[in-house]
Each structure stands twice: as C-alpha cells, then as structure tokens.
C-alpha cells in the first residue's frame, strides 16, 4: 500500500512537472505577451513573463522580473486607462484597456492589455495575469479616423457658415442691383422677385409670387415668341438675350423693356430655375433716337455748304493762272485733299443715319466680283507705300449686288488692315466660293483685337480703348460694313489674336445662275 502510494505519488509528480513544462512551452509559443504579477508582494511585482512579452516590450527578463508594470509607461503617466487599471487591481477585478506603452528604446506602442485576477480559495487575489497585444496599427487607424471625422465636422460647420454668408451676400447684391430680377420654376411660376422689380412695376410681392409669369399685369409677357424662347432655356441651356417688349404696362404706362433669361447653373436646391433680368430702356432708347436725329440733321446740314466749298475749290483749281505762286498752288491742293476727307467723313455719318432710319438703298446690278476686288485693291495699293496687298483665290462670280457699297466694305476692311498693322508690311486678301456663297477674307498681321472687343467693334462708334488715342477714326466703318453685308443677306465677322493680327471675312449669297 505504501509503495503503491509512493509509486502513485511519483507518477503524479512527474506528470505535474511535465504539465508545467508543457504549459511554459505553450505560454512561450503564444504570440500575445503574458506576464504574471504577485499581488501578495509589495508593489505587485512581475514574477513571470513569456518570450512574446520580451519581444513586444524590447526589455530583457532581468529588466522585468521584480518590477511593477508601470515602467512600461515611462513618463507618460497622465492616461485615464491607468486609473481604470488601478481600480480593477484594487478591487480584484479583470479589465481591458488600450494603453500607451514604450519599448526599452523609447518607441511608443499601443498595448491592448487584458488583466485578470487569480484568487485563492478564500477569494483573496494572489496573482494577476496580464495578456498583452501590440495594437499600434489599429489604434493609430482609429485615431486617424477620429481626427478625420473631427476635421470633417469642422469643415461642415465652416461650410454651412460660408454658405449662409454667401447667401446673405448674394441676397444683398440681388436686392441692390438696378435691374428687375425674377426667378421662375420650370413651370414658369414666380418663386421670387427683387426689390427693384417691385419698385419699377409698382406691384406687391403678393401680386406676383406664385403666379405664372404670363399672367402678370395685363398679360404684358404673354407673347408667343417669348414663350417659345423661354421654353427652350432649361432643356437647351440657351439664354434668351435682349428680347425687347414694348407695351402699355398697368400702373406705369407705355414702356420699352429689354429682357434676358438664363438657366440658373447651381447644382442641388437651385437647379432648374430660370433667372429673368428686365431693364427699362425707354429713356435710353429715346436719348439714342435724339442722338440719331441730331446726327442725321447735322450731317445733312454740313453736306450742303461743303458741296459748295468743293465746287469753289474746283473752280479755283481750274482757273488758277500758270504763273501763280507755287505756295498758293500747294495750299489749294491740300485744301482739296482735306475737303475731300471731310466729305467722306460726312458721307460715313450720313450712311449711319440712313441705316438708323432704314433708308439705306441698294442699287443692285450684275458685276464681275473678282475684277471689282482687283480694281479696289489696285486703287488702294497706289495710295499705300507701307504695305503690300496680295490677292489669292477667286470667286469666279458675276455677282448681283450694290457694287459701290461692296467696294466701300472692301476699302474699309483694307484700310483698317493697313491702319492697325503699323509693324507689318503685308495684307492678304483671299477669295473663295463656299457652297452658294462667295467669301472674302482680309488678313493683317498687326495689333489684333481681344476677345471681348471682337463682338463690340461692329457697334457704331465703338473703338478699342487703347487704340483710339493713337489712330484717327470714328468707329463707324465696321458698323456700316456690317449693315451693308447684312442687307445683301450675308454676314461679316472677325477672327483675331491680340499681337498677331486679324482676319475679317464676309460671305455673300450668290444665285447659282449668276456663277460663271
Ligand atoms: P475706326 O477704324 O474708324 O475706329 P471701325 O468701325 O472701322 O472704325 O473699327 C472699329 C474699331 O475696331 C477700331 O477702332 C479698332 O479698334 C478695331 N479694328 C478694326 N479693324 C481692325 C484691325 N484690322 N485690327 C485691329 N483692330 C481693328
């Protein structure tokens, strides 16, 4: 019995040792760091650590055994997780924290620490087991995410504030502009109007908001052509530009209004709206009319005495004695030149006033187009030393049109090409047939015209800002040319690059039976 007991005991002992060795091996094979602290000893020192803990912490066993775990935090003591740990240990409870720890070489790592008490049969805590994992990457990702969220929230707050400010800012502009503004929804119902609209049309917001645009007043905007145009604004994004409405408006009487409509481009809440800007141009048009009248009267009045002066000069020239003073003859010649210049300026002004009153008359006749171009170029070339004018291409057309007016257009484009290209010595005329049109292009290599001015130069009296001081002119040549070409059913346009030069082209429709 005794020997049996002893044998059994031996067997048991060797089994326990084997188990212990196995357990230690298992602990060392774990990829989690494991430590055991002895709670019965002062300051709860570490009594065991596995290999993974050495790996995670970078310390040697001798640096670890006998120490309290706090060395892992170095001087980074101000962590709320430490307080959680302290309380759990005090109360003999388990807890999990992510805590900032430092390796022996000072590198920070986030330690996911699970602390669990080991109690004796009386419930007193004997040991604590700490299982640790380096979760630096996860925690860093979480911190980054939190930071990004915070940044995003901050941006949203800023953006909301910015939007509010922009809205207030836009609102103040809309309310102060000196144009009447209306915003329509896609069914042409009025969503809002600005103060200027209320003032100009002498209406209230209640009279206006929620109504269909065409129901307003006494139906002043209920114009089939306007309706047609407005209906294309949203689907095609094409604005309605400079649509004139002359009407007897309720409360404000007979007025001339000009209307522009655009699709509101903002995405989101304000998509699919139409913004209409209306300007009262009654007074402006009246002033323009008076100016035109003045121009017409003045040029007519100037023309008559000038014709008489011209007659006298010719008389003097034909009767001047052969032995007359050379100075006198030269003065007479100069007077003739200047009177001729004055005469053509007045003729231009008369052209403008004739166009204004719709009195420009075309005397259409068949003429050889290419011959007319060659002769006009020759005429100008004789008077021009600075530039060489070349003609290439051909239209091969007998054209039916007002020859003298077309010559006037060509002369104008050529003299502009010469005038506005002081640094170059070439002007090129190119003729071509394009479908049922003849096309003439005049190219110079001079100052060029910037994009904004390209549209305006065909307006009467418009001259490009920096040019007007240096070159003589009245800004009506292109206006007259444009009207002449339009009256022939053609179009005139410019392509230009500042500093490189310009090409003015016009097309004229030809009837096939007139082509050679
Ligand atoms: P004017 O030459 O008398 O000013 P135009 O109506 O012929 O009047 O021309 C209007 C304006 O267009 C000119 O003042 C000038 O600014 C610009 N312009 C016309 N032709 C040219 C050109 N070939 N190159 C550069 N600018 C030009």
Automatic annotation (TrEMBL):
Gene Ontology annotations of biological process type: osmosensory signaling via phosphorelay pathway
Membrane topology listed for this record: Multi-pass membrane protein
Gene3D superfamilies according to UniProt: 1.10.287.130, Histidine kinase-like ATPase, C-terminal domain, PAS domain
A GO CC term attached to the entry: membrane
EC number of this enzyme: 2.7.13.3
PROSITE patterns with a match to the protein in the record: HIS_KIN, PAC, PAS
Catalytic reaction annotation: ATP + protein L-histidine = ADP + protein N-phospho-L-histidine
Domain of life: Bacteria
GO terms for MF: ATP binding; phosphorelay response regulator activity; phosphorelay sensor kinase activity; protein kinase activator activity
InterPro entries xref list: BphY/WalK/GraS-like (IPR050351), HATPase_C_sf (IPR036890), HATPase_dom (IPR003594), His_kinase_dom (IPR005467), HisK_dim/P_dom (IPR003661), HisK_dim/P_sf (IPR036097), PAC (IPR001610), PAS (IPR000014)
Protein name in UniProt: histidine kinase
């Amino acid at each position: 019995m005794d020997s049996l007991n002893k044998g059994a005991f031996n067997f048991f002992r060797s089994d326990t040792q084997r188990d212990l060795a196995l357990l230690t091996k298992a602990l060392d094979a774990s990829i989690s760091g494991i430590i055991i602290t002895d709670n019965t000893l002062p300051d709860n020192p570490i009594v065991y650590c596995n290999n993974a803990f050495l790996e995670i912490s970078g310390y040697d066993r001798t640096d670890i055994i006998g120490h309290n775990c706090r060395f892992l935090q170095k001087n980074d003591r101000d962590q709320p997780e430490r307080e959680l740990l302290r309380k759990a240990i005090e109360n003999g409870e388990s807890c999990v924290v992510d805590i900032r720890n430092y390796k022996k070489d000072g590198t920070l790592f986030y330690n996911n620490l699970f602390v669990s008490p080991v109690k004796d049969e009386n419930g007193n805590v004997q040991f604590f087991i700490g299982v640790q994992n380096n979760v630096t990457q996860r925690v860093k990702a979480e911190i980054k995410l939190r930071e990004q969220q915070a940044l995003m929230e901050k941006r949203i707050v800023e953006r909301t504030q910015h939007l509010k400010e922009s809205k207030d800012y836009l609102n103040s502009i809309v309310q102060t502009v000196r144009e009447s503004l209306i915003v329509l929804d896609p069914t042409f119902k009025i969503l809002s109007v600005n103060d200027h609209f209320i003032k100009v049309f002498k209406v209230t917001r209640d009279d206006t908001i929620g109504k269909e645009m065409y129901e307003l007043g006494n139906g002043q905007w209920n114009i089939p052509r306007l309706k047609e145009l407005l209906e294309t604004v949203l689907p095609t994004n094409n604005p309605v530009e400079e649509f004139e409405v002359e009407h007897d408006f309720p409360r404000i009487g007979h007025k001339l209004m000009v209307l522009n409509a655009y699709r509101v481009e903002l995405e989101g809440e304000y998509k699919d709206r139409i913004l209409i800007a209306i300007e009262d141009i009654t007074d402006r048009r009246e002033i323009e009319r008076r100016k035109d009248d003045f121009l017409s009267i003045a040029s007519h009045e100037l023309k008559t005495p000038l014709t008489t002066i011209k007659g006298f000069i010719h008389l003097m020239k034909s009767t001047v004695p052969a032995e007359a003073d050379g100075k006198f003859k030269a003065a007479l010649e100069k007077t003739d030149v200047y009177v001729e210049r004055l005469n053509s300026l007045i003729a231009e002004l008369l052209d403008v006033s004739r166009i204004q009153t719709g009195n420009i008359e075309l005397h259409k006749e068949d003429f050889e187009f290419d011959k007319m171009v060659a002769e006009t170029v020759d005429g100008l070339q004789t008077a021009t030393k600075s530039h060489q004018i070349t003609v290439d291409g051909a239209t091969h057309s007998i054209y039916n049109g007002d020859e003298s007016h077309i010559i006037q257009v060509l002369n104008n484009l050529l003299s502009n090409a010469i005038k506005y290209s002081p640094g170059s010595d070439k002007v090129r005329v190119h003729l071509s047939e394009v479908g049922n049109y003849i096309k003439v292009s005049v190219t110079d290599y001079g100052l060029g015209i910037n994009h904004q001015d390209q549209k305006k130069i065909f307006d009467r009296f418009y001259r490009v800002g920096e040019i007007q001081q240096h070159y003589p002119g009245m800004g009506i040549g292109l206006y007259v040319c444009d009207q002449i070409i339009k009256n022939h059913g053609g179009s005139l346009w410019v392509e230009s690059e500042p500093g490189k030069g310009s090409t003015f082209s016009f097309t004229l429709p030809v009837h096939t039976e007139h082509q050679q």
